[in-house]
Amino acid sequence: MERYLGIDVGSVTTKLVVIDADNHPIFSHYQRTNGRPVTAIQHAFHVLAETLGTEIGIRGVGATGSGRQLASMMLGADEVRTEITAHAIAAKQLCPTVGTVIDIGGQDSKVIFIRDGVTTGFNMNTVCAAGTGSFLDHQATRLGIPIEEFGEYALRSHAPVKIAGRCGVFAESDLIHKQQMGYPPEDLIAGLCISLARNFLQNVARDPKGRKMRSPILFQGGVAANVGMKAAFEHLLEVELVVPEYFTVMGAWGAALLARRARERGDKPTTFRGIARIANFTCQPRSFTCSDCANNCEISELYIDNELISRWGSRCAKWENLSLSSAERHEESEAPLMKG
Predict the structure, then answer these.
(1) Distant-in-sequence, close-in-space partners of 22: CB < 8 Å, separation ≥ 6
(2) Cis amide prior to 216 (ω within 30 degrees)
(3) For a surface tag, which of 149, 178, 267, 314 has the fewest beta carbons within 10 Å of its beta carbon?
(4) So where are the chain's domains?
């Protein structure tokens, strides 16, 4: 068996994918991180073990997402890459002629420009999170509508209400104001979707280098499940968007593909710790501040089964050597604090 595993640990959700020799996902898992990435990662591996077993021939592992550093240390990943690279390679695997990727996740949104199979650039939201999954979840809760039905409400509208969408705070304030004026929920939600899509196109997709959104356009990330947002983008762009079958786990799929590429470039064996061990070991992140110089770097550590397996965060990289005598002195001096 030749299988590769990819994990995407985001601020809101954790995704896991296993692909076969033909690069097709044979297992995918999507769950909320709930602010506890260690627990989320281990739960995902419990599900994997129950579904496919623990001995499935994993030959390489890739990690991506905002929590990729932690995930890579926990799993023993062979390849660690950014979400941009992971989402782009998955999009090109699915649609070799893809021209643009719109990816909107829990707290960030991005556009990736691709030409002739080569990624030429990308943009991300820098300040405002309007239109991301967390923002839409909050609005759905406030309106008393299940997020799974949010987009369907938008499609029922015949007269979308104009909502200020340049800022998440202003969008929510304007939505409340229009709600108090008695507009029906479907018109409010449709107006919000259009406003948020316009905000994305004007602020995230507007490229200072003049790169344009080209078809085919793939819509990825959790927000792609919102048919109201998809319809809003199609209305403004006047082109049909493609929502991939695995739109929620494209980053994890891309990480698995990257792990396979890394494996094919060399003959080093995988450093993967194994499904059974990851699902059951004890994992504890810790940190301390190094005061050896004026930088006062925050050093992160990861202990697995009470063994220090990784340390990172120093600008000078001095703490990457786990056998440093100064590290031992630090551990002794900080022992009461670390136990607490």
Answers:
(1) none
(2) yes
(3) 267
(4) 3-89+250-280, 96-243, 284-339
- Spatial contact of 157 and 185, defined as CB atoms under 8 Å apart: no
- Give residue 129's pLDDT: 66
Q: What is the CATH number of domain 96-243?
A: 3.30.420.40
Residue 275's CB is within 10 A of a number of other CB atoms, namely: 21
**pLDDT at 329 > cutoff 60:** no
Residue 324 pLDDT: 54
Burial 76-108 (b: 16+ CB within 10 A, else e): bbbbbbebbbbbbbbbbbbbeebbbbbbbbbeb
Class level of CATH domain 3-89+250-280 = alpha beta
**pTM metric for this prediction:** 0.86
What distance in Å separates the CA atoms of residue 330 and residue 299, rounded to the nearest whole number? Answer: 12
Give residue-wise pLDDT tens across range 255-306: 999 999 998 887 788 999 999 999 999 999 888 998 888 889 998 888 999 9
